[in-house]
Amino acid sequence: MAKSGRVTLAQVAELAGVSVMTASYTYNRPDRVSDQARRKVLAAADQLGYAGPDPSARSLRRGSTHALGVVMGEHLSYAFDDPEAVSFLAGIADVCAARGFAMTILPITGGADDVPRVKGAAVDGYVVWTTADDDPVLAAVQSMRRPAVVHGGPAVRGLGLVTIDNRAAAAAVGATAFAGARRPAILSFPLSRDRVSTVTRGAQLTDVPFPVTRERLEGYREAVEGAGAGWDAVVVAVCGRNDAAEAERMAATLLASPEPPDAIAAMSDQQAAGVVRAARAAGLTVPGDLAVTGWDDSAVAERLGLTTVAQSLREQGAACAEAALGRPYQSRAAGWSVVRRGSTRGVSGASGRGPRSR
After folding, report:
1. Where in the sequence is the domain holding 26, given as residue range(s)?
2. pTM summary value
């Protein structure tokens, strides 16, 4: 019968009639224990109710948890619902599986417990999904002095960075989206960690703390001005989440306005899919009445024939994981390209740019 309190490995060894080292090897180095000794140890453990060595204590002894923390500024379900988040996490999982590591997802929602959760995670390194310049979890990760890398931005001293040139990519796809347009509009990611959905104008966009959003807006501005339009009057519909249903509602509002847009550049394929649905519901043709572009070149982009920015979030996830697990990595821009399909009007002279242009 088990003794009161937590059963120790020494008690198991005593009951089995073997040394503590032999009992330890039964769990940690079974190849070094005879079948007879192993049976004795396991029988004694079963009798005493011993479940095995404490994983936390074992991690402390070896100086490693063999787990990688992934900090995501979204609710946990986002990691499984959003196609691009799934792709990004799959890239991390590929590396973790090859290296024998677990992956721990650390969702942050802007609450007071974000920093303690991140700092208290039993992980060997961190990957931080794109966040805002003012996110306190960045300083928390930095203070842990473990290998860490940020995806998308912001750039943080001492942490790696894996991203594409969002400004250049937005300028390139925007040139295609806005060619010949008289009333260009943008469907944007959140401007700040408050994630407020709103409709605004280019003139009102100042101090955007999300670097990915900020850089894409800067690229779209280049495209708008290159098409001969004024940025200040451009309508920007800000979505609180990367969600097709919300994008459809926002696009429907824009299309029902007295001066509806004739071109919409969306910051994701999910948003662009919502725009296409709103256009169809309004009886508009794409691209005749409304040109539409997306971002990511996901399955929905191919299915709907969307012009989009192609990037491999799976490759970027893998690069983040390699860097966070200690492989030397020089921060650099990952590859991207513009893929032209039938959702935009014909244009000459605009071409995809970037390391993977096609």
Report:
1. 9-53
2. 0.81
